[in-house]
Design brief:
Elements (H helix, E strand, L loop, with lengths): L1 H18 L6 H12 L5 E2 L3 E2 L10 E7 L7 E9 L4 E9 L4 E9 L10 H4 L23 H23 L1
Antiparallel strand pairs: 1-3, 2-3, 3-4, 4-5, 5-6
């Protein structure tokens, strides 16, 4: 029994320490971005790790990108938020000023609360440029996913602020 617990502990520690640098590595990020935008041959820039800028310990990585043949720059921001019991991954696509173009939940690990992955519900975040954002005020409540919905609503302004601060420099 002790060997099994040791093995499980070693595997989980090993997985955690190796997954942080690989959180949405370039090939995986590009695949999700192309699928989300339904565009092939996006020009992906170098990965930017913003994880240290959030005190919650959540992972946040961004890739500047542009559409084929267009000079405008955008950011694909891969991050995570906390549901009731588990973390979930989501993608923010912003323009160069940090205005949200699209939000997509990429991986929802819990059995409950998956309603936040609804395109209609997530569309409420489109065109958000920063500032206060309140659940049940600017963002509609969603039955069955209260904790996840509140979490993503609370996290998005922080992520947008990080992108805006980066873009200004």
């Amino acid at each position: 029994m002790a060997r099994i617990l040791l093995l499980i502990t070693l595997l989980s520690v090993s997985e955690f320490t190796h997954s942080v640098p690989d959180f949405y590595a370039e090939n995986k990020a590009l695949k999700f971005l192309e699928k989300t935008l339904k565009v092939k041959e996006l020009e992906l820039g170098e990965r930017i790790d913003f994880t240290d800028q959030l005190d919650e310990g959540r992972k946040v990585v961004a890739y500047p990108f542009s559409y084929p043949g267009k000079p405008e720059k955008y950011f694909a921001v891969f991050t995570e938020s906390k549901g009731r019991y588990d973390m979930f991954d989501y993608l923010l696509i912003t323009d160069k000023e940090g205005e949200i173009q699209q939000v997509k939940v990429l991986r929802y690990r819990s059995e409950h609360g998956g309603e936040i992955a609804s395109k209609k519900w997530l569309s409420q975040f489109e065109h958000y440029k920063g500032g206060d954002l309140y659940y049940e005020e600017e963002i509609s409540a969603i039955s069955g996913a209260t904790i996840s919905a509140m979490s993503i609503t609370r996290d998005i302004p922080k992520v947008v602020y990080i992108i805006q601060a980066y873009a200004e420099n």
